[in-house]
Specification:
Elements: E1 14-17, E2 21-22, E3 25-26, E4 29-35, H1 47-52, H2 68-72, H3 84-93, H4 96-100, H5 103-106, H6 114-118, H7 125-138, H8 146-161, H9 166-176, H10 184-196, H11 199-211, H12 219-240
Antiparallel strand pairs: 1-4, 2-3
Helix pairs in contact: 8-9
Length: 258
């Protein structure tokens, strides 16, 4: 389905003539605006499969370009360039170079799930946006986003110990994103909690920071999780390398009437 939205036309593709007369009629300025044809030089026929192999991207094939996701998008309301429908279109068309032009804003999805709730085809656009951001990082097009770093730290603690320590997650996140550990908002929250938190809870939290307890009998679960994560990551890399297809089913979605 072609894209006709004026906001999606790249400024450099709009051509005007300051002085132009056609058959005696002056059409100078915006009257003589032409849209330069777009040439795709690096078409990637596997792009949809690559995104589908990422967590959250497996339903991208269901999209029929109705635009409900973009219309409902919280971020699009303040940043018109954030356009899930358009990016899904580019992915399905294999226009990798066009997609990369927006690589610095794709990761800005705030996971409000408005797009997912309104989508009539259960595409789950929020998942597709996260899958696309993950794909950008895996291919080296963008550095890990702050949300990606936080997810990695959260997952690491779950896998290794079967539980999380909120304070440790936050500290490691701030350290990895090169943010100061002491911030005004964090200090204010710390003092507010300390005033209301029972002393034994405070001691327990400090103890956890030093000795890093884990869920009892967690070793077998940890090994199973590590094997699963390794298997999924290997599959993702194989799809990106063009050596396999994503394992998720791409069976057509049932019509609403059914």
């Amino acid at each position: 389905m072609p894209i006709h939205e004026k906001s999606l036309i790249r400024p450099e593709n709009l051509k005007t003539h300051d002085n132009l007369v056609i058959e005696g009629i002056d059409v100078s300025g915006h009257w003589s605006t032409f849209i330069e044809s777009r040439v795709v030089t690096d078409y990637n026929e596997n792009l949809e499969d690559e995104i589908a192999a990422m967590p959250g991207g497996d339903k991208i094939h269901r999209c029929w370009q109705c635009g409900s996701c973009t219309n409902a998008c919280t971020v699009n309301a303040i940043e018109p360039r954030f356009n899930p429908r358009y990016w899904i279109y580019l992915i399905r068309m294999g226009m990798e170079s066009e997609l990369l032009r927006d690589k610095d804003i794709i990761w800005q999805c705030v996971s409000c799930h408005k797009c997912t709730h309104i989508c009539p085809r259960d595409v789950e656009p929020e998942g597709v946006m996260k899958a696309t951001a993950h794909w950008l990082t895996m291919k080296g097009y963008t550095p890990p986003s702050p949300s990606h770093i936080f997810d990695e730290e959260f997952t690491h603690q779950i896998v290794q110990r079967g539980r999380i320590e909120d304070t440790e997650v936050l500290q490691n996140f701030l350290r990895k994103t090169k943010q100061p550990l002491m911030q005004d908002w964090l200090t204010a929250i710390g003092f507010a909690i300390a005033k209301r938190l029972p002393v034994k809870w405070g001691i327990k939290m400090a103890w956890a920071q030093i000795f890093k307890p884990k869920t009892r009998g967690w070793d077998k679960a940890r090994i199973a999780l590590e094997d699963y994560i390794h298997e999924v990551e290997s599959e993702q890399k194989a799809v990106i390398a063009g050596k396999s297809k994503p394992q998720q089913s791409h069976a057509p979605v049932r019509e609403a009437a059914e």
